[in-house]
Amino acid sequence: MPSTDDAEDDILARFRELTAGLDHEVFGHPPETADRRRPEPSAVQVLTVRVDLHRSTPPIWRRLELRSDLSLEDVHTVLQTAFGWAGYHLWRFAAGGAPFDEDAQQFLCEFDVEEGEDPDGIPASEVRLGELLQSEGDTLEYLYDYGDGWDLGIVVEAVREAEAGDAPARATGGSRAAPPEDCGGLRDEEDLKTLLEDPAFFDVAALDLELWSGTTMLTVPEDDVVPALLVDPLTLIGRARAGQDLMDRALLLGAPLAPLPDSAVESALRALTWFLERADAEGGIPLTGAGYLRPADVEAASAVLPQMADWIGMNNREVHAVPLQMFRTSLQRAGILRKHKGALLLTRRARAYYRAGNVRELFLDSLVPSRYETEELAQVVLLTYVATTKPGLPLPMVEIARVLSAIFGPSESGPVTTGAIRDLPAWHLLANTGTVTSRLSERGFCFSPEATSFAREALTR
Q1: pLDDT recorded at residue 31
Q2: C-alpha of 2 from chain center
Q3: Is the pLDDT reported for residue 212 higher than 80?
């Protein structure tokens, strides 16, 4: 009589014989995904591709020339520019099928790689376009924003050998405006008419110029080209569309410019000095039981705080004196003040600077550092725009938000907002530096000449 183990072996062998060749989906074990990559051509190619937004009516498309030595991450950046998107959602490429098809090979953005939910996916930054597209008719799929689902089909129309001087990417044709970010996946003309002034508009010359200038930006800037504090933000933003403006401004900081003279520092930092003097006194600055400045101190501080110069109200309660409250809390977030037993005192660092007579150095050293890496990067970018925007003119807040969104990448909370920028401690420290010459209703996002000078000095010293 055969043993139980022998019987089980016979049954398993018979089962395998009967099920050989059956669809893997029956048993839920997908086969290993085929590797669609090929050796790159011996010479760099220029691929003319047509890129179509699937299911758009009328068709929305672009014709591009792409060098085969671009990484897929670079191609992602080009596609973002070509379709006017900002790059703050997740994305991926797929070869041999649609994105998320189990038979297709997936090439992932950095966030998807870190999440690890697609273990067979390959980082897009490690793959060259020429490994996947080499001949006329070759195809590649791209998906941006897994919610709205902007899926693009890329088809090679022509191939030639690259010549000296060929830009990484050019635009040679196309049709119609692309849907805007976060519009719910709309791609029909009638729906887009409610969102776009002219859905039929497309300027190929403008796109070509933007691609040409944007993709020639340094991917990893050298330390001696831009201020050291800007190397990390520029490296993180890479070739993202928003990166060119940040790079242009970073290069402007290389021009020599005299710092604010010492004779002007005391007046420019009078609001900071008011808090330093009182917080260093015995007992510090006493707070109310609710944790606010006392009415007499609110009135005294408001008299020297630039942003309180024309603030509406009695200015005797901190909860109603919003600019003052934001400045005071920013001093705490910047590591200048600390709360202790119902009073505001100087931190050890601030006390050392103040008693040594180095108020200027304290202020400069407090504009960038933060206990949070993202906040520190954001303050570096903010200082760059303050330092390179003419005093009295408003900062380009939408552009700053776009740059920060590109640096930080996809986030569950969405892109960076202008409100988040105005919440940075450096914003309130700089906004209360110098003399306010315009009315509250006219100031908007403008900074004083002293603030511009301090921002530049903090970045370049």
Answers
A1: 60
A2: 69
A3: no
